[in-house]
Amino acid sequence: MERKWRIGAVSYLNTRPLLLGLEQSALMAEIELVKAYPAKIAQDLIDGTIDMGLVPVAVTPLLKEAHFVSNYCIGAIGEVASVCIFSQVPIEQVEKIYLDYQSRTSVQLARILLSQYWKKEVEYLKADDGYIQQIEGTTAGVIIGDRALAARTHFNYVYDLASAWIAHTGLPFVFATWIANKPIPKVFMDAFDAANAYGLQHLQEVIAGIPTNEQVYDLHTYYTQNISYDFNDEKRKGLALFLSLLK
Question: Which of 171, 169, 146, 148 is nearest to 160 (CA)?
């Protein structure tokens, strides 16, 4: 038997619709699925311990080969809700910002927006476990994923990074997409995309499978209004601009 494809995926709520169909499909016989936070999956792709991953797009310049292999992504055409700068004071008063250790793309996006959109100079702080409790006074923090959804009611000011990017550029933003570090056969990717599509067509099944204690936000709103999953031409333009700014 040939070696299974090693596939990495982010273990956040926003990936559940893409993974539901995959985990129920016959493709699982051909896949070894690894779940972790975004920066860990990105490092696995760089190291070659996985073949493909739903990874932060900021990893792209670090790969020897980067193949955008799927028609699906984690993107936004408006407020994303789960990637934000959180603060107890207005951003004009912020002096320091913690950068979420679980992220690559979001922290780079925050740096770009603070410099070019808010035109704000701050001191950046390395975040470790428990850093969210240190967000106080004039110290803000970038929080992503499920923890960001849970934090929305705990801070006076929430600055949505997708909304800010769109206001700044007029283009949607792509946080993560399926990227391979080698060519992937088309017949496999066609089946893979079909499996991704299943969950988007069965959102009630996705939501029903998520424990109540993890539903810290209206998930139907999240999946239909905040996250935009199709990796279309406009998102590719937004991604190309973001990657050019990283340079």
Answer: 148
What does pTM read for this prediction? 0.94
Distance CA 96, CA 137 (A): 10
Residue 1 pLDDT: 43
pLDDT tens digit string along 161-213?
999 999 999 999 999 999 999 999 999 999 999 999 999 999 999 999 999 99
Bridge-based pairing of strands 52-56 and 67-76 is: unpaired
- The structural domains of the chain, with segments of one domain joined by +, span 5-74+173-246, 83-169
Angle (nearest 5°) at CA 173 between 232 and 200: 55
Return the CATH architecture of domain 83-169. Answer: 3-Layer(aba) Sandwich (3.40)
For the sheet containing 228-230, what is the strand order?
Answer: 31-36, 5-10, 52-56, 173-180, 67-76, 228-230
d(CA 12, CA 18): 11
Q: Which pLDDT score, from 0 to 100, does residue 2 have?
A: 66
Return the half-sphere exposure (C-beta side, CA atoms, 13 A cut-off) of residue 228: 19
CATH topology of domain 5-74+173-246: D-Maltodextrin-Binding Protein; domain 2 (3.40.190)
Over range 142-155, report the average pLDDT. 95
Q: How many CB atoms lie within 10 A of CB 25?
A: 17
pLDDT at 238 exceeding the cut of 80 = yes
